[in-house]
Design a protein that fits this description.
By secondary structure, the protein is of the alpha+beta class.
């Protein structure tokens, strides 16, 4: 018999009754019934109930073992009585009568229990992540993550993609976030950067003559945490293809993403092909380039009914370039009377001046805005919105971008508050036709709005003949339930167009050469038209696991301050390490409130 186990804790069934088995695992739970002592023994595969009677050899050892101790149990499999069968366990028809019992590793007193569904502070969970990962939900999430990645890999190879690994130590590049820098011991004063994404390397792979690349790629960005973004590092399904147009990328990605979601959920998944929404339409109808299509509400433009109207606040703002966007709020049976005041309070709490509204009733309108607007213009609002008595409109009046933002937030708020979102579904879409450039108000200049390596629609002619703010790029995002899974683009593979585009964004040719010399050099030796995308693995798993926080699907995540509480990282470097790297620390001065107080201090 094997020294540790003949079977796993999820394997023993009724067909094993009468056999002697050996199991090893963790004591999940222990229950004392007086003359009988039960332990639920848990391993990676499941749980088996084991039992020992008072007076049997080993009873005192079982009685003295703490939960989460690692033990080996040898005994005979017996059928449970009908009233003690546990249908919640795959092994619930049987139990093991303990004959031999050995403690492999005794557990100390636990800082947090593993058994049960109690919630614990995140700092405790992350400090003792090895315990947290023993909990059923967390264990299931990590196994799900592995299965999803395996499925993605298979789906990509089935389409003829080849997996390559790109460098981790590389050069710094402006990807939009801060780099993690790694000092070089062999080259004093110089630094590597951890890749924010394998962007340039995957393009170089295409230029090197490989046709279809993918990688489950680690990416590193020194940025703040969010619910759907892990600080420090994350993983993405990195994809690049040669001799493709935008539709070719969609046709490769859609079946893989759709297939994975259908494989790992019983929810409804948007059928192929996924709908395509232009950036302009997304901002107009949903107030966001990450539209949640589970929400049936659509924003409408109602600038004209307010232009020159008696509602002077909006009328004057329109004269100075503002617009008015309206969010429908349909009458529902459970809409509380306080709904409108709470929406206004919510808008103010988010930093806006407020959220005006009109309620349609008796063929007219109700509320201060309706009173100042007049019956004729209220009727125009009713016609534009297609709403009826009992329905309402909320208004956002501001410059176009800010009006879209407030309307988009209000659309989400109304949809959630009135419980309008479609349930048990994954609603996908592509957002396409992004502007190539945007105007940076703070810097007072044109800059790239997204990926600077994107091919402009219309090529060189568009850059030379159009207003920069009217130039669109072959840039696209894939969105699911209001969460951006990925950005992608058809790349700019022509050096002359790259110089021109960067020049319009204020980058001299010398700067382009210094920052992207390797890429430009490769483009000058024959580059195929190519494009790609990189859906986020962590976000895909988060959606399929039905988790709100991305740290619930990452094995060893950092906290929101980008700290690994378990391994105590980041930590101070030893002086000898700093000397080897030729580094001297220039730490920031402590804040006044952080300075230790001393006696007999005098005013400066």
């Amino acid at each position: 018999m094997h020294i540790y186990r003949t079977h796993t804790c999820g394997e023993v069934r009724e067909s094993y009754v009468g056999e002697t088995v050996r199991l090893s695992g963790w004591i999940h739970r222990k229950r004392d019934h007086g003359h009988l002592l039960f332990i639920d023994l848990r391993d990676h595969y499941g749980v088996t109930q084991c039992v020992i009677e008072k007076g049997d050899a080993g009873f005192e050892a079982v009685e003295g073992s703490r939960a989460e101790s690692v033990v080996t149990v040898t005994g005979s499999v017996v059928k449970r009585s009908a009233e003690t069968v546990n249908p919640g366990l795959s092994t619930g028809q049987v139990e093991v009568r303990i004959v031999e019992y050995q403690v492999q590793s005794a557990a100390a007193e636990l800082p947090m229990p593993v058994f049960g569904d109690q919630e614990y502070p995140e700092d405790i969970r992350l400090r003792y992540r090895f315990l947290d990962l023993r909990r059923e939900k967390m264990h299931r999430n990590i196994v799900l993550r592995s299965a999803i990645i395996q499925s993605i890999r298979q789906r990509m190879t089935d389409q003829g993609f080849i997996e390559f690994q790109t460098p981790i130590l590389t050069a710094s590049s402006p990807e939009g976030a801060r780099d993690f820098l790694v000092p070089s011991r062999m080259h004093p004063g110089k630094f590597y950067a951890l890749p924010q994404a394998p962007q340039q390397f995957k393009q170089l792979t295409m230029i090197s003559g490989f046709d279809r690349y993918f990688q489950i790629a680690p990416c590193f960005r020194d940025e703040d945490a969010r619910a759907d973004r892990s600080p420090g590092e994350f993983y993405q399904l990195d994809i690049e293809m040669s001799f493709v147009e935008q539709d070719d990328v969609f046709n490769a990605v859609e079946p893989a993403i759709h297939g994975v979601f259908e494989e790992f959920t019983d929810h409804q998944v948007t059928p192929l092909p996924f709908p395509r929404i232009t950036y302009a339409d997304a901002m107009m109808k949903y107030g966001s380039d990450k539209p949640d299509l589970r929400n049936p509400l659509e924003i409408i433009d109602v600038t004209e009914p307010f232009r020159g109207s008696g509602f002077s606040i909006f009328a004057k703002a329109i004269e100075s370039g503002s617009v008015v966007r309206a969010v429908p709020a349909p009458a529902t049976g459970d809409r509380p009377r306080s709904f409108f005041d709470k929406m206004n309070d919510w808008a103010r709490s988010e930093g806006w001046t407020g959220l005006g509204y009109v309620i349609f009733e008796n063929g007219g309108g109700k509320g201060p805005i309706a009173k100042n607007l007049g019956d004729e213009r209220v009727a125009q609002l009713r016609t534009l919105s297609g709403l009826g008595d009992g329905d309402a409109l909320f208004f956002a009046c501001d410059k176009p971008n800010d009006a879209a933002k407030l309307a988009g937030l209000a659309r989400n708020r109304v949809g959630e508050t009135l419980e309008l979102l479609e349930q048990k579904c994954f609603k996908f879409c592509w957002v396409v036709d992004y502007p190539m450039f945007e105007y940076d108000e703070e810097e007072g200049k044109i800059d790239f709005s997204h990926n600077p390596f994107t091919m402009p629609q219309g090529g060189m002619a568009a850059l030379e003949d159009k207003d920069p703010l009217d130039v669109l790029g072959y840039q696209y995002d894939i969105v699911c339930n209001g969460i951006e899974l990925s950005s992608g683009a058809i790349r700019n593979h022509l050096p002359e167009i790259m110089y021109k585009a960067f020049g319009m964004a204020g980058y001299p040719e010398a700067d382009v050469e210094s920052k992207f010399g390797g890429m430009l050099s490769a483009l000058k030796y024959g580059a195929p038209p190519h494009g790609g995308i990189a859906p986020g693995i962590d976000r895909i798993v988060m959606l399929l696991a039905d988790e709100k926080n991305i740290r619930e699907v990452i094995m060893f995540p950092m906290n929101q301050q980008a700290q690994d509480l378990m391994m105590q990282a980041p930590s101070e470097a030893l002086p000898r390490h700093l000397r080897e790297l030729h580094l001297r620390l220039a730490l920031p001065e402590p804040k006044v409130e952080d300075k230790p107080k001393t006696e007999n201090t005098q005013d400066a």
